[in-house]
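TASK: fixed-backbone design
INPUT:
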């Protein structure tokens, strides 16, 4: 039986190429030097970022607190059930 190799014409994943690995390493080195050289500036801004986070969390994370949520009464739990007689089929 002859088995011929299958040719894959698919494009390789970008993150598995050597260019992506090089880009990741260069980005890591750049981030390291930016953080070490400008650490005083980053630390000086942290309190303001915390204060900015408070209103943003209030706006985006509360979910409306029940606004626009209407309670639908179940017909079985309404007052009609209480007014029926115990043996009444309707």
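OUTPUT:
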């Amino acid at each position: 039986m002859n088995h011929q190799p299958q040719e894959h014409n698919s494009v390789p994943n970008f993150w598995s190429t050597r260019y992506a690995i090089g880009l990741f390493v260069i980005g890591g080195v750049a981030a390291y030097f930016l953080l070490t050289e400008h650490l005083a500036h980053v630390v000086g801004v942290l309190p303001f970022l915390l204060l900015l986070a408070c209103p943003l969390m209030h706006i985006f994370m509360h979910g409306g607190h029940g606004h626009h949520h209407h309670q639908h009464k179940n017909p079985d739990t309404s007052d009609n059930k209480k007014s029926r007689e115990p043996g009444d089929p309707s």
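COMMENT: The chain has a mean pLDDT of 77.
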